């Protein structure tokens, strides 16, 4: 279910980034990803969002956002890009697989920020919630490992090394499809995910209905509370 939610969220961001002018959310975090009773996704709180011309490389603007989710390159250089949302989304991915708070002053100084912890520990299972890992079968563990790999790419300090939102969306869909039949398929998808040349193909972009679709009731739930 969480993987499906991340796919839908990436789908929303893909739509926002492809329209002209595109929209950079600037505050992508779990508490801004709401679900209705049918677990349909709605990305909310566009108070910090900025229009972004498709032909622009960046927008110079003072950094704003939620601590722990802010792109460090944007924070240091005051240059907002579409990859700033990708960094924040990478933090969301790590938050979901680890079940750890984004900021925790009780952790070691170098790991107060979850993103820093992830960069250091994402290559092993220490980052993953032990309960999730213990109760997962082999295929599910393969999928978790692939999500961790994708998150690692999103969290690169140099935004040129981060994937685009279209690449993220396609990667998540591939991960979801990987576990349909066997671990062999999962391994094939893992190899495919590492092949940057394949990531720009066969992406199905979202429609505006994903972002502003009608709600059948007033009940919403934050992903962070799931």
TrEMBL record:
<feature type="domain" description="Protein kinase">
    <location>
        <begin position="1"/>
        <end position="175"/>
    </location>
</feature>
<dbReference type="GO" id="GO:0005524">
    <property type="term" value="F:ATP binding"/>
</dbReference>
<dbReference type="InterPro" id="IPR011009">
    <property type="entry name" value="Kinase-like_dom_sf"/>
</dbReference>
<dbReference type="InterPro" id="IPR008271">
    <property type="entry name" value="Ser/Thr_kinase_AS"/>
</dbReference>
<dbReference type="Pfam" id="PF00069">
    <property type="entry name" value="Pkinase"/>
</dbReference>
<protein>
    <recommendedName>
        <fullName>Protein kinase domain-containing protein</fullName>
    </recommendedName>
</protein>
<dbReference type="InterPro" id="IPR000719">
    <property type="entry name" value="Prot_kinase_dom"/>
</dbReference>
<keyword id="KW-0547">Nucleotide-binding</keyword>
<dbReference type="GO" id="GO:0004672">
    <property type="term" value="F:protein kinase activity"/>
</dbReference>
<keyword id="KW-0067">ATP-binding</keyword>
